[in-house]
Amino acid sequence: MQLSMESGISKYSLGSFLKYAAMLCNNKVFRNVEVGCRLGQTVMKVLTKRFGSSSDQKAKLFFQYYALIAYYSEPFQHCRDMLREGFEAGMCSGDVRYSFLNALNQIRLGFLSGKNLQDLLKETEYYLSLMGNQKLNQTKALLLMFHETISLLISNSEYTAPTEATGSIIPPLQQCFHKTIQSFFLSRSERCNHFAEKIMQAAEGGRQNHIFIMFYYAINSFKVAEFVHTKKINAVPEQALATFKEAAKHSDDFQNKVELLEAELFNRDGERDKAKASYAASIASARSSELTHEEGLACEKAACHHKNIGETSEALEYFVKAQECYKKWGSRVKVNDIERQIALIQM
Hints:
Elements: H1 2-7, H2 13-26, H3 33-51, H4 58-68, H5 76-93, H6 96-112, H7 117-131, H8 137-154, H9 172-185, H10 189-201, H11 210-224, H12 231-247, H13 255-268, H14 272-288, H15 292-308, H16 312-329, H17 332-346
Helix pairs in contact: 2-3, 2-4, 3-4, 4-5, 4-6, 5-6, 6-7, 6-8, 7-8, 8-9, 9-10, 9-11, 10-11, 11-12, 11-13, 12-13, 13-14, 13-15, 14-15, 15-16, 16-17
C-alpha cells in the first residue's frame, strides 16, 4: 500500500487495499466495518473504471471483496452471484486458484443466504467435478465439508462423500463452523455450543464466519441456559444483540437477527406482547431479505413461544409457516422435525 501511495496505483495495488479493508471488517483490534466497506467499494469502482472487467486480477479481487468484505454492506444474494462471476472470470483468465476460491465462497454464502439446499448440493457437486486433478486439496476438502453439511440438512442419514478424501488437513475453525451449523439445525444444543464457543474464542482465523456463527451461538444459548445456569451463557444474547444492531446499520440482512434475538430475550424475561411483536418483525424482515431458512427459524421460535404460554392455535399456525419455509429451503430434516412438533400439539 505504501508503494502504491508513493508511486501510483496499478492493478496489482488493488489487492493490498482490499486486504486492508478486510482487516478493518474482520479484525477484533482494528475493527471499523464502515470504513472497511467504503474502502472496498472504492477499490471495486477503480477496478471497473480504470482496469476494466476483463482484468486478469478480477477473480482475485472478487474473492477478496465479495467473500470477505461485501456481505457487511450488500445483500448476501448479490455477493453470492458476484462470486459466481468471479469463478467464471478466473476460469477465463486461467487463475484456477482464485476461480475455485470464488466457487467455494459462492457455496458458503449460498448456504448462509438460505438458497435451496438441493440446488446448492448440485452446484457443489458441479464444482467438485470440475476440480478433477487440480492441486487444490484444501479447497476441495472445504467443498466436501459443505457437501456433507448440506446433505445432512437435506436428509439426516449416513453420509457418503462423492469423492475420496483429499488428504488435506482442514483448519480446525472451519471444522467447527460446519459442526456448529450441523448441530444447530439437528437440535444438538450442547454440541452446537461446544463448537461455536471455539470460534467465538479464537483470536484470529475463520473471522469471515464469526458474525454468522455468533447468531446461531446466541439463539442456541437460550436452549443451553435451560440446563446450564452461568453468567457466561446468560450474557451471550445481549453481547450478540449489540453486534447485530451495529451490523444492521450497514445491511438490512442483519435486521431479522436483531429482531429474533430481541424476541427471545423478551420471551425469556416474560414480556409476552413485546416478544410476539418482535417475532413477527423478524419473520417479516427475513422474508424481505429472502432468508428463507431464517424466516423458518423465526416462525419456529414464535410457535414455541405461543405453545409455552398455552396459545395452541397460534402455535400451530406458526409451526405450519415454519414447515413451509423449511420445505422451500429444501431441508427434509427440519420439515420432519416440525411435523413431530405439530403432532405433539394435536395429541
